Amino acid sequence: MIEVDGVHKRFVAGRGRKVKVIEAVRGVSFRAADSRITAVLGPNGAGKTTTLRMAAALLVPDSGRILVDGIDVAVQPRQALARMGVLSDARGLYPRLTARENIVYHARLQGMANDRAQSRAEQLAQMLELRALLDRRTDGFSQGERMKTALARALVHDPPNIVLDEPTNGLDVQSIRSLRDALRRLRDEQGKCIVFCTHIMQEVQRLCDHVVVVSHGRVMAEGSVEELNRRSGLADFEETFVSLAFGARAEPMTP
Amino acid sequence: MNSAWVVFAKELRDALRDRRTLMAVVLSSVVMGPLVLFALSALVASSEQRAESREILVAGLEHAPSLRNFFERNTLVAKAAPADFEQQMVKRQLGEAVLVVPQDFEATLARGDKPVVELVSSSANPRAGVGTQRLRRAMQGFVQEQAVLRLAYRGVAPALLEPVKVEERDLADPRARSAQLTGMVPFFVLMAVLYGALNAALDTTAGERERGSLEPLLMTPASRLALVVGKWGAVAAVGMLIAVLSCLSFLPAQSLMRSETLAALFRFGVREAALFLALLLPLAATLSALMMAIAIRCRTFKEAQASNTIVILGVSLLPLLSLFNDSGEQPWHVWVPALAQITLMGRVLRGEAFAAIDLLIPLGVAAALAAACLVYIARHLRAAATR
Known about the structure:
The complex is a heterodimer of chains A (255) and B (387).
Chain A: E1 2-13, E2 20-32, E3 36-41, H1 48-55, E4 63-68, E5 71-72, H2 77-82, E6 84-87, H3 99-109, H4 114-127, H5 143-155, E7 161-165, H6 173-190, E8 193-198, H7 201-207, E9 210-215, E10 218-223, H8 225-232, H9 237-246
Parallel strand pairs in A: 3-8, 3-9, 6-7, 7-8
Antiparallel strand pairs in A: 1-2, 1-4, 4-5, 9-10
Helix pairs in contact in A: 3-4, 3-5, 8-9
Chain B: H1 2-17, H2 19-52, E1 55-59, H3 65-73, E2 77-80, H4 85-90, E3 98-100, H5 105-111, E4 118-120, H6 128-153, H7 174-182, H8 185-203, H9 206-211, H10 214-218, H11 224-248, H12 250-253, H13 260-265, H14 270-295, H15 301-324, H16 339-350, H17 356-386
Parallel strand pairs in B: 1-2, 1-3
Antiparallel strand pairs in B: 3-4
């Protein structure tokens, strides 16, 4: 379970007279429960990636806190990270290493023994249809293949909480479908808490149980797709999203 | 520290897989030693050969039978200079000085007047220098002989010509003399280490940022210091590998030397190699940390390369300091990283003894600088990943 509680983050750019303050996140709160896929849906620049980076202890929130299974990320970042698998916006691989070596490297840094890391890499390759690529160097990989390798790397320590930032970028239809199946299985069979940051409505509609609409660094609305549709009085989820994120009543709306 | 080990193993493997870069660096460091020695020895050998040769170039020797007689008695082989020797000398095609004898030489000498001979050389043509010395000595001999003969004819003791006798005594032992020639060796070794570690240093810091693999790395529970120490260890290991290779390459290289004098003078045995390594290995580690600390602030590999030019420039300019500085070695030299090592390597080559403290000061400075750099990198890692 991941709890985001009143998190603020602002960036100060420049110095002296040219100083510019950017309010990236202004009070985001939501709860991503176990056995659920929670979508964080928002337009570009809504503060999704910043929130995610705070959850991954890369940034320290100015105020508010983030709890992962009850562990405060700011206080015990290493314990929190051990319980989290994050596929962030930056998902660079080491081009001179094979896919397997890339995955095993992160497994070892998660404290796994070599044997377990190897078998886990095989297992994830099976799940993500990476088997044929496993022992090839990643510098020739397509974007989709890179994405799958990065995803396997993020999930290698079998974390109870999974945070994915735009994981379907660059994937073809087949791969998107198998990723969706894999995520559903993780939710249903293993009771994982999955947070899915995206700006693609389709993905949210097909996959997510709970939607958190974020815009301008704030949570604008929360609920299931049907609930949100009902509340906005619109049949189409895209229309609902536009009205919630950019609509005339840009006031936060909570259930 | 287990994660530091994991990072070290991965970075080392990554660096060793970068074959093309590694081969270029290793080859240049291994080949450089023999090449420098070979070029140096060829230079010395050719100048030795010319110094020993008894050939001189003279224009118009037919006008001076007495001079020819003197040359022959002193086993100097006088050859006629080419007609256009002045042009050749200016164009640097002729590497010898030329003595020009005027037509009326013999007659003027017989009259007791002063005939004028010209010693033609070009100071823009350094090769002619050796020949100039030889010709000047030959002419001095001739002049002295003439003077002695004339004094003896007048019944004056020739010893009057030389009221004071000057004898030369050279204090430099062979090693110290050779160090003048081989003084550039430490500099070459140091540059090899620097360039060897550069690529790995940039790849593990700025390269990681550019690829976007730093952020995922920081999302593992490994501590920042462990990550930095692991990376540094790998970079330093590459630098040390280059140091070992380039030092050892001088051992077999000595057999390639063409000048026997230089071969006798350049004494680089196992002891010297070991002392070089004792100085170079800690420095390789420190310079690695320094280059990484500079690179971590840069977003791309290219930017980091540009920023690190300062380090490379600084290290390559340090030998000039001791070159331009007439006052020689200063006590503070051993406190400056790189300068200390160059100074001490010079002392090793000259065969001078040095105390343990001379080794300990640079070691301490290197350790302190490396530690400061590592802490700096660890502090900047998070900011680097998110910016």
